[in-house]
Amino acid sequence: MIKENSLITIFGLGHMGLPTAALLAQSGLKVLGVDINKKTVEMVNSGQSPIMEPGLDELVRKTVQEGYLSATNDMVEAVKSAEIIMIIVPTPVDGNKKSDLSAVISASKSISEGLNEGTMVIVESTVPPGTCDNIVIPLLETSGLKAGTDFKIAYTPERALPHNTIYEMTHNARVIGGIDPPSAKRAASLYQRITKGEIIMVQNLVTAEMVKLMENTYRDTNIALANELALVCDSMGVDAIEAIQAANHHPRVNIHTPGPGVGGHCLSIDPYFIVETAREKGVETNLIKTSRQVNEAMPQEVAKIIQQALKETGKTIKGSKIGILGVAYKGNVADARETPAEPLIKILKDKCAEVYVNDPYVSPEIINNWGVQIVDLENALNCDCVVLLTDHDFYKDIKPSMIKNRLLVCTRPVLEKEKFKKAGVIFKGVGRS
Ligand code: SAJ
Known about the structure:
Blueprint: E1 7-11, H1 17-26, E2 30-34, H2 38-45, H3 56-65, E3 69-72, H4 75-80, E4 84-87, H5 102-114, E5 120-123, H6 131-140, E6 152-155, H7 165-169, E7 174-178, H8 181-191, E8 199-202, H9 205-236, H10 240-247, H11 270-280, H12 286-296, H13 298-311, E9 321-325, H14 341-350, E10 354-358, H15 364-368, E11 373-374, H16 377-381, E12 385-388, E13 407-410, H17 417-422, E14 426-428
Parallel strand pairs: 1-2, 1-4, 2-3, 4-5, 5-6, 7-8, 9-10, 9-12, 10-11, 12-13, 13-14
Antiparallel strand pairs: 6-7
Helix pairs in contact: 1-3, 5-6, 9-11, 9-12, 13-14
Bound molecules: ligand SAJ.
């Protein structure tokens, strides 16, 4: 169903768009990536990936060198000869947690200016349920063409895990919903070129949009449950990590891992898309909203743990040197979007702490925006209080003797509490009583 020399145009060369473009190019299709970021376009056309993702640099280099992958800033030109057009652009929320669909709208408008009969449009961006039907299709139909009749449209959410994206994109199941069965089938035949995973067809666009949001909202609410249980355990001197590990031996229990909060541009955002649409439909979403509040409050909880820990050494946050290990939103990624480290650092600075940050993954430009000092691991470990926020693999080798002032707040279950306590380190953390 997909001709070998089909041209595919992909709007968005970010964490999901670029790997998708490179994999489709590797499958032998001509792929033209479109991005508003000129540096991204230049890097891709020179065979480099602007995204740090294992295996992606090599894939981009190879497919660009072989002439299958290229990039442009020219949105309208890129659409004219495309047989398949994909929208994989960011969909953040604004300050009021309302979806910002400007990138999807801009791409849809550009597509409508060059849309041809028979073209297949595929939306991958995570969007509030109903976006394809109520926003994307009306914009595409300003071309004068009719969705379903004159052009095909399908929605399929991307659900790869950053830092494992290439593997997951080529193995995870794909959920696809189309405006009609031929649209869904044509989209399925495209993805079968790059994934061995099962193709799960659902009955329409809005169902497919909802599936993605349900997945991430399930994770966010379960992390909120884990965080709340950890705070309760801390109040009773129960080690929540130990209790959760024991509870999860139950065949039908899967309590997630407590932490300093939920970062990333998915789990911390997607639940709000359900809240937004539910509100428009007059449906309450108390559990989803409360779960978001629990997770967003975790940086404050970590600040309380730090305050309590310093008090045990006769110190206060004010005037103390606090060494933060890791500001990426999770381990082994360079991404600091929505990271819980940012609000925690603000709280500590507002309480007049001297904050020092170590995170070799995250670019200094991002960290410097927070008004903190970037230091190497040794200097971070020399602070009055060391706070591990991100479970980067290399932090797992930290030894008790390296904590110079014998005070560690560990918010991820990556260091052995007993070993540190035996060595005389005051060891605190989320769920680590
Ligand atoms: N986290 C916890 N406790 C847990 C699990 C995660 O505190 O038990 C925290 C992490 O530290 C991080 C945040 O939650 O701060 C989210 O991390 P994550 O690994 O659960 O998920 P993401 O943000 O990496 O989600 C990505 C998303 N995929 C894309 O970026 C396209 C998401 O849509 C996927 O569903 C998810 O990977 C996945 O697990 O597949």
